[in-house]
Amino acid sequence: MNILAPVRRDRVLTELPQYLRKEAALHVHKDFHPRVTCACQEHRTGTVGRFKISKVIVVGDLSVGKTCLINRFCKDTFDKNYKATIGVDFEMERFEVLGVPFSLQLWDTAGQERFKCIASTYYRGAQAIIIVFNLNDVTSLEHTKQWLADALKENDPSSVLLFLVGSKKDLSTPAQYMLMEKDALKVAQEMKAEYWAVSSLTGLKLLPVSGENVREFFFRVTALTFEANVLAELEKSGSRRIGDVIRINSDDSNLYLTASKKKPMCCP
Ligand SMILES: Nc1nc2c(ncn2[C@@H]2O[C@H](COP(=O)(O)OP(=O)(O)OP(=O)(O)O)[C@@H](O)[C@H]2O)c(=O)[nH]1
Ligand SMILES: [Mg+2]
């Protein structure tokens, strides 16, 4: 893909997309962090922009629907036939967030045990980890902790954003879904991950991206990864004032928790 091609109109984010469930959200603020908005307005986003590509890895049991989820978002396609991912695949997606170009590399890894060791060599350097389970298979939810542990061996747990995604929502009845969601929210809270439930199959006639919650989910991943990147960049560049502490993924996973109580430099 040509990295300099214009960003698609349906990949432009001007507002912070909202979480799915308040009790398992990385943060519950309605807008981007004011310092991030400011930095974007003043073109002070450092390496976040045209040349920086953020890595997102997608892990989880075999056949939970990782490839379908990525294909639904990136290509708006759905294949009902299962074709196991061998090792890894990746897709590049370009966005514009608050006027700043931002690229995500989505790494689709194999869930099959025999390909796991190839796939795990690609875990390193992730800024976000998406752990997928099948909403209709409780074992796949139980396995998410192991997937997370493996992915975190290669990454810095304090700076990576975590998302727990239940897939194939179209296959569960509302009652079944509610039961599974209860367990999933608990797991998400333990992991300090943001919870989402999606279907890559349903909503086939909706544009620009079909599937239930697929577009909303990836936009949220994009926005939070962008926000964390810009905050990290501001911190690195020393633009913050003394006593103005920003943690990217604090203990309760709230990006804003330790942000400055003083007024940011550039904001009213
Ligand atoms: N009904 C339904 N089926 C789905 C959905 N997502 C995926 N599937 C089906 O589930 C099967 C597995 O999907 P994949 O996306 O290939 O699974 P995967 O997690 O990438 O599997 P590995 O590559 O082996 O790790 C396929 O037959 C898909 O058609 C969904 O949202 N709803
Ligand atoms: Mg796959």
Automatic annotation (TrEMBL):
Looking up Pfam families in the UniProt record yields:
Ras (PF00071)
Which processes are annotated in GO (biological process)?
cell projection organization; protein transport
Q: What is its EC number?
A: 3.6.5.2
Requisite cofactors: Mg(2+)
Q: Which reaction does it catalyse?
A: GTP + H2O = GDP + phosphate + H(+)
Which UniProt keywords are listed? Acetylation, Cell projection, Cilium biogenesis/degradation, Cytoplasm, Cytoplasmic vesicle, Cytoskeleton, Golgi apparatus, GTP-binding, Hydrolase, Lipoprotein, Magnesium, Membrane, Metal-binding, Nucleotide-binding, Phosphoprotein, Prenylation, Protein transport, Transport
Q: What family does the entry list?
A: Belongs to the small GTPase superfamily. Rab family.
According to UniProt, the name of this protein is Ras-related protein Rab-34
Instruction: List the source organism.
Output: Monodon monoceros
